[in-house]
Write a structure and sequence with these properties.
75% of the residues lie in helices and 0% in strands. By secondary structure, it is mainly α. The chain has 2 domains: 5-242, Rhopdopsin 7-helix transmembrane proteins; 268-378, no CATH class. The chain is elongated and about 100 Å long.
């Protein structure tokens, strides 16, 4: 598990940090952005060091057995500290947040110092790159070290969940709210890890084997870490995803409007700003979609001089017999009227002067979504 899930988490963390670097290098970066950058850094270190291969290299390079255990767990404490700092800077003005964050940092620094002292005094001379956290649980000073570590981590996770839930109710931005929910869910995974580590310490007096629930600990740490990483990164890439979805929707709308637009502009080329515009928009999609909607509206108004309400009766009756109802029936009826008016305009031979009606209808009757529905119905009429 450590050799698969943890490298995956490390990769996500390092990629997230690389994507964050441009904003971190800006002069106008805020303290919250720096805290989030540190969060990615320490997450990357946590899961990189926890990889058994890196663990073994560190032990050989330093000559200190299981030093990677202290380094990875210290990075976990720093992960919590950076998250709480970011949330503090979001919740308060800088002049109020800075002393609060400073006090938090002193508290975390005290925990790290105590962990280092206890680790140095504990008897961990036998290297174990995969199960050290479990293997030495319940043994002497390492148990005190482990209880200090998991208790500090548990407190920070409860604080993160509470603050994320509080900010979700007050903070602006849908993607930021989604990210905070994911970060809170990831903190729940951290609490699963904490519960397993408490159980590790208590297992020895009761004669239990902590390896029986070690999978839960690693899944809690790994999956919780991934959710937390995604949660903190969502505000950065989420808006781009929304924009991409909007562009894709605009492209589909532009494409769906082509049959109706083409028929109208063929009948009256003066309607089109660019008569050579094709089915697909390559550049300036928003402008081209706007122009296509405007030109279709102008074309429908122009055709009113040729419309005969009685000409759509048979088409409407046929649509009703086919089972069309509601907006589908309305769209088909309007499309049938346009088709009949185009036929009449072709017989007349000379385009009539555009008509300016007193009311062009509501936006829902002339908006892109409605015109797409009419255009699709138009293609089904012979």
């Amino acid at each position: 598990m450590n050799g698969i899930l943890y490298p995956l988490c490390a990769g996500v963390a390092w990629v997230s940090l690389l994507l964050k670097l441009p904003s971190l290098l800006r002069r106008d970066r805020g303290p919250a952005a720096i805290a989030i950058g540190l969060f990615y850094l320490f997450m990357g270190l946590t899961f990189t060091i926890s990889d058994p291969r890196v663990w073994a290299v560190l032990d050989r390079a330093t000559g200190v057995p299981n030093l990677a255990l202290l380094l990875s767990q210290s990075s976990v404490i720093c992960v919590s500290a950076s998250q709480l700092a970011a949330l503090t800077f979001w919740a308060h003005p800088d002049e109020k947040a800075r002393p609060m964050v400073r006090r938090q940092m002193w508290g975390f620094a005290g925990v790290l110092a105590a962990m280092a002292v206890l680790f140095a005094m504990a008897d961990l001379t036998e290297e174990d790159t995969t199960t050290a956290a479990v293997r030495f649980a319940g043994q002497g000073l390492y148990s005190v070290y482990l209880m200090l570590y998991v208790t500090s981590f548990a407190v920070s996770q409860f604080m993160l969940i509470a603050r994320c839930r509080k900010h979700v109710r007050t903070i602006a931005g849908p993607w930021l709210r989604r990210g905070l929910r994911l970060a809170a869910t990831g903190a729940v995974g951290g609490l699963v890890y904490v519960t397993a580590r408490y159980a590790d310490v208590l297992a020895r007096p009761f004669g239990l084997d902590p390896l029986r629930w070690e999978l839960a600990a690693r899944l809690g740490a790994g999956l919780g870490g991934i959710l937390t990483l995604i949660g903190w990164s969502v505000p950065g890439w989420g808006p781009q995803l929304t924009a991409a979805r909007a562009q894709a929707r605009a492209y589909r709308t532009h494409l769906a409007l082509f049959p109706l637009w083409s028929a109208l502009c063929t009948a009256n080329p003066d309607l089109a700003l660019d008569p050579g515009a094709g089915r697909r928009a390559i550049r300036d999609l928003d402008f081209q979609l706007h122009r296509r909607v405007v030109e279709i509206r102008d074309g429908i108004r122009w055709l009113r001089a040729y419309q005969d309400p009685t000409s759509t009766g048979s088409a409407t009756q046929a649509a009703e017999r086919a089972g069309l109802t509601g907006d589908d029936l309305r769209a088909y009826t309007e499309a049938a009227g346009i088709r009949a008016a185009l036929t009449a305009s072709a017989r007349a031979g000379v385009p009539a002067a555009p008509e300016r009606p007193a009311s062009a209808g509501t936006e829902s009757d002339t908006g892109p979504d409605w015109l797409v529905r009419v255009s699709r119905a138009f293609t089904t009429i012979d």
